[in-house]
Amino acid sequence: MDVRRTTAKLQDFYILSIKSIVYIFRRPFYLNEIVEQMNYIGVGSLLLVTLVSMFIGLALSLQISIELSLLGLQMYTGNIVGMAIIREIGPVSIGLAFAGRVGSGMASEIGSMVIGHQVDVMRVYGILPLKKLVVPRVISCLIMLPLLTVIGDTIAILGSYYIAIYESHQSSAFFWSQIKDSLTLSNILAGLLKPVVFGYVIACVS
After folding, report:
1. Which of 20, 109, 141, 198 could disulfide-link 95, Cβ–Cβ 3.0 to 4.6 Å?
2. What is the DSSP letter of 133?
3. d(Cα 1, Cα 130) in Å, to the nearest integer?
4. What is the reported pLDDT for 155?
5. What is the pLDDT of residues 47-81, one digit of tens each?
6. Cβ proximity of 81 and 176 under 8 Å
7. What is the DSSP string of 53-109?
8. Is residue 68 a contact partner of residue 170, using CB atoms and an 8 Å limit?
């Protein structure tokens, strides 16, 4: 019985996930809902992303520069930090912070609407809850999480720059040349694809 119930829940989740993508391209388009969710998801998470990214950049640059100084390779801190932040650490850490704030908020909001029978009222008035409640949140997560990741990566790199220049006394020009070398097309695509997937999964699960 538990297996059937679990299978049914997984089936409902997969159907919801697929419909949330299909319904993006169907009318009506609730633009006000999308803008409102983008403001809550993006602008509301900006301070959290800024703090998390800054501390990640500071700590990562400090630890890497210490380890590389033992090998006499301290000048390559920028390359390693830039690649790590852009490809892996930035998208994952910002995605976790995003899930903690936005995911729990969306789940509690929709849950309270279900308990308060607001979703049933929408159905009575001929409004599809999936289209009005789920799709705007999916669109907002798909747009705002990559933007927050770009902002967070920039802040993390600036934090690592502070450590590299003012604590490790490295060359500023060489540091930025190392960061520039890490901005390859493969690194950028990997760093932007992950937050898109994370945003979609967070929105659907929430």
Report:
1. 198
2. I
3. 28
4. 92
5. 888 999 899 888 888 888 888 777 777 777 888 88
6. no
7. HHHHHHHHHHHHHHHHHHHT-GGGHHHHHHHHIIIIIHHHHHHHHHIIIIIHHHHHH
8. no
The pTM score is 0.86
Low-confidence stretches of the chain (pLDDT beneath 70): 1
Residue 195, classed as helix, strand or coil, is helix
pLDDT at 118: 78
Helix, strand, coil share of the chain (percent; to 5):
90, 0, 10
Cβ-defined contacts of 166-170 (< 8 Å, 24+) = 167/62, 167/65, 168/61, 168/65, 168/69, 168/74, 168/77, 170/65, 170/74, 170/75, 170/77, 170/78
Write the CB contacts of 120 (distance below 8 Å, at least 6 apart in sequence): none
